[in-house]
């Protein structure tokens, strides 16, 4: 019998592009799982950006003043010398009586040229050009306004297809991915003016955008540092850094469009229409043709809005994932090298980097596509304009010089109307970046919780029927009842995972009780302002973190006013003074130059000294002696008894030698307090949990 051919296993379906984008964003931050942005959300982000503008009223007013000067001169004066050159210099036509055909406000200047020869007229036009270039840095081949997206409009914009990638006169060269563009965006400044006024304009704009970016970036960084520890655990450091440094700069792009672009666009349209209706009322079809750029561009651009937003979101999330990959690899370098994972980590980064570039290519393709539609819509209008104006010149309605003036205003109008239809799609990339910023900024923070100011603790900490459930549903503590008084050393003991650290976290409110009451001096911590509570607590974590700067600055981090003598005293207590004395610069040694040479124990001793130096009535030490030798441990334990005379000292430890002399020991198991008492009392309890734990530890050692 012939065996049946095995049925091939089905190929797992590939995730859709949209689902792939969500997977990337979830990889960047486990909290940020809703990656889509609805139309209502986009409008809410735009309104939120506008709320920042009121903080910079004076600088925005100054910038709008420069824009007004730009547009008034460019639209009311600049086009008309071209008409003089064509009609009266090249074609030799005499200037009509009263300078008809020119605006009334320019008539006196035009009449000054009446009777002059061609060369003399050109000399005066040349002098006017020198003035224009010196003061405004302007020639008639350059744009005449700014679109709602912040880009130039007018002759240069229209003749180049109106590409809004051309950001005007005062910009810097930049790269072509999101991360490398952001430094330019955070220092963004542009202006249609050059010359003397252009320098002033650029300076005002630069200060304005830098201040705006600095404000949002600083606010976001501050919010991240104020997040609860349970929230921080769900964030990837690289993703948060990407949002602070790269996504936040989107605010300057939207500022250019929302504030500067809309203002200059409206002002430019008003001036241009006024001149066209006043002096060229015989060509209403030109005005209508320019206005048609709005519906035509809108029909071409609107279908790309959501696509542009989603592609930018995916590109940013992929870039953040790459940044997180770098951060994780550097943070875990010892594990990578010791476990032979260098090749695997290199491949992981290679994949993340390739995905980031792939997502950016997709975004760039979408951006290029809708920009081409915009350019095609404007160029189509230019072709029709040429046909209409050619007929008007042939039938004698307009002169050849009028053609250049009308062409100028047509470009201003058509580029601006087209940009108004284009702007919502163009803004989607920045909306995607700011959604990521505001998501992180809107996470609940500890400092958002106010309350009563806690005076200096004089009694101690009590817990009544306290339970703790973490946001992911894990129960860490249940039915906790304890009392810890000032002047005592209290120890939390138990096996790994028993809930010791979670219990200690309740005291400074790193986590808040899900059930029961945690009180200090009889005041429920739910009613206490977080800042006043943290001012009462000095916490030395098990995982030692040192800051860049000198050893002296690290030890004084929690007490900036401490004297060198006080620093030296706590360093001696922690057993680190002798080592510091051997360093060439002593306490002024920069940690960055020796951190790789510091042992775990030496780092821990610096952290202990830092905790002891802070004048806080509550001192919590998480495994303070895990990396200390027996002699230093004994010295530290004696020092803690001295410190406990006016403090409550809470110790989390496994070593019996550290906790044997504690005033009260709480033994935890599975998140519950099984026993409490002194070391002697607990050891005297037959078959007690603590006795069994201590006996097992003694047997192991």
What is shown here, in short?
The chain is built from 29 helices and twelve strands. With 701 residues, it is α/β, with parallel strands linked by helices.
Topology:
Elements: H1 17-28, H2 39-53, H3 57-76, H4 80-90, H5 107-111, H6 118-136, E1 145-146, E2 152-153, H7 155-159, H8 178-186, H9 195-225, H10 229-232, H11 237-245, H12 250-279, H13 284-291, H14 293-301, H15 305-331, H16 333-338, H17 342-394, H18 400-441, E3 460-469, E4 475-485, E5 489-494, H19 500-505, E6 515-520, E7 523-524, H20 530-534, E8 537-540, H21 551-555, H22 564-574, H23 577-582, H24 591-594, H25 600-613, E9 618-622, H26 630-643, E10 648-652, H27 656-659, E11 664-669, E12 672-677, H28 679-683, H29 689-700
Parallel strand pairs: 5-10, 5-11, 8-9, 9-10
Antiparallel strand pairs: 1-2, 3-4, 3-6, 6-7, 11-12
- Please list the strands of the largest sheet in the order they lie side by side: 8-9-10-5-11-12
Number of strands: 12
Largest sheet: 6 strands, mixed
The CATH homologous superfamily name of the domain at 19-79 and 140-441 equals ABC transporter type 1, transmembrane domain
Instruction: Report helical residue fraction.
Output: 55-70%
Per CATH, the class of the domain at 19-79 and 140-441 reads Mainly Alpha
What share of residues are in beta strands? 5-15%
For this structure, the CATH topology of the domain at 19-79 and 140-441 is ABC transporter transmembrane region fold
Using the 3D structure, state the CATH architecture of the domain at 19-79 and 140-441: Up-down Bundle
């Amino acid at each position: 019998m012939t065996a049946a051919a095995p049925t091939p296993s089905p190929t797992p379906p590939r995730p859709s592009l949209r689902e792939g984008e969500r997977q990337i964003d979830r990889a960047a931050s486990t909290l940020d799982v809703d990656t889509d942005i609805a139309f209502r959300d986009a409008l809410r982000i735009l309104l939120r950006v506008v709320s920042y503008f009121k903080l910079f009223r004076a600088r925005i007013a100054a910038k709008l003043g420069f824009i007004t000067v730009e547009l008034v001169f460019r639209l009311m004066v600049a086009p008309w010398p071209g008409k003089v050159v064509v009609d009266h210099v090249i074609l030799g036509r005499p200037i009509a009586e009263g300078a008809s055909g020119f605006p009334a406000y320019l008539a006196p200047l035009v009449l000054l040229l009446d009777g002059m020869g061609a060369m003399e007229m050109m000399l005066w036009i040349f002098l006017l050009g020198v003035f224009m270039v010196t003061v405004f840095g302007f020639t008639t081949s350059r744009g005449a306004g700014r679109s709602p997206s912040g880009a130039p409009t007018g002759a240069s914009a229209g003749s180049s297809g109106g590409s809004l990638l051309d950001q005007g006169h005062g910009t810097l060269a930049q790269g072509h991915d999101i991360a490398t563009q952001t430094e330019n965006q955070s220092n963004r400044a542009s202006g249609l003016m050059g010359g003397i006024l252009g320098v002033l304009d650029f300076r005002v704009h630069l200060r304005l955008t830098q201040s705006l970016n600095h404000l949002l970036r600083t606010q976001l960084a501050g919010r991240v540092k104020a997040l609860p520890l349970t929230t921080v655990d769900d964030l990837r450091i690289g993703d948060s850094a990407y949002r602070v440094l790269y996504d936040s700069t989107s605010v300057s792009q939207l500022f250019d469009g929302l504030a500067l672009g809309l203002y200059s666009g409206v002002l430019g349209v008003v001036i241009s229409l006024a001149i066209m209706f006043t002096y060229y009322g015989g060509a209403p079809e030109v005005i209508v043709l320019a206005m048609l750029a709005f519906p035509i561009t809108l029909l071409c651009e609107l279908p790309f809005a959501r696509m542009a937003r989603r592609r930018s979101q995916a590109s940013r999330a992929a870039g953040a994932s790459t940044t997180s990959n770098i951060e994780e690899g550097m943070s875990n370098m010892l594990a990578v090298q010791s476990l032979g994972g260098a090749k695997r980590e290199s491949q992981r980064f290679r994949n993340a980097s390739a995905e980031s570039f792939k997502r950016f290519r997709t975004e760039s393709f979408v951006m290029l596509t809708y920009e081409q539609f915009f350019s095609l819509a404007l160029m189509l209008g230019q072709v029709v304009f040429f046909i209409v104006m050619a007929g008007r010149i042939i039938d004698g309605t307009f002169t050849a010089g009028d053609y250049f003036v009308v062409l100028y205003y047509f470009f201003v109008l058509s580029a601006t109307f087209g940009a108004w239809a284009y702007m919502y799609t163009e803004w989607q990339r920045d909306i995607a970046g700011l959604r990521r910023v505001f998501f992180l900024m809107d996470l609940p923070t500890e400092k958002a919780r106010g309350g009563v100011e806690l005076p200096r603790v004089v009694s101690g900490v009590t817990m009544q029927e306290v339970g703790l459930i973490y946001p992911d549903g894990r129960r860490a503590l249940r039915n906790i009842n304890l009392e810890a008084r000032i002047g005592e050393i209290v120890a939390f003991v138990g096996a790994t995972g028993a809930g010791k650290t979670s219990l200690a976290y309740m005291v400074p409110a790193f986590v808040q009780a899900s059930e029961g009451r945690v009180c200090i001096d009889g005041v429920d911590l739910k009613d206490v302002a977080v800042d006043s509570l943290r001012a009462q607590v000095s916490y030395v974590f098990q995982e030692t973190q040192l800051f860049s700067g000198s050893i002296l600055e690290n030890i004084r981090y929690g007490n900036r006013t401490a004297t060198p003598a006080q620093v030296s005293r706590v360093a001696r207590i922690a057993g680190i003074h002798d080592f510091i004395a051997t360093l060439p610069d002593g306490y002024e040694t920069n940690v960055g130059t020796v951190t790789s040479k510091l042992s775990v124990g030496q780092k821990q001793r610096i952290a202990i000294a830092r905790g002891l130096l802070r004048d806080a009535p509550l001192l919590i030490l998480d495994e303070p002696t895990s990396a200390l030798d027996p002699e230093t441990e004994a010295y530290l334990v004696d020092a803690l008894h001295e410190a406990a005379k006016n403090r409550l000292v809470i110790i989390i430890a496994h070593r019996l030698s550290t906790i044997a002399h504690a005033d009260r020991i709480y033994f935890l198991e599975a998140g519950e307090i099984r026993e409490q008492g002194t070391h002697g009392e607990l050891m005297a309890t037959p078959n007690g949990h603590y006795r069994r734990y201590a006996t097992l530890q003694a047997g192991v050692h």
